[in-house]
């Protein structure tokens, strides 16, 4: 049920085709299936629409799906750069 709520919320947000979409850290969800589905949806929309997402995650594996990363620790930017995965902008 959580994936349905998240998908509907994203659909509402995407209706106006924003230049930038802020997304919650859905990967903190204890159920990995919805987290993977949400991440897959973001990757798909980014590829099809070229929309920029600000995606928050604690999971390095998921972060590697995205082309650019900003690492924050203790409230400060501690690193930036390209992911080794070379994925989505």
Automatic annotation (TrEMBL):
Gene3D superfamilies: P-loop containing nucleotide triphosphate hydrolases
Family matches, as SUPFAM superfamilies: P-loop containing nucleoside triphosphate hydrolases
Full protein name: Uncharacterized protein
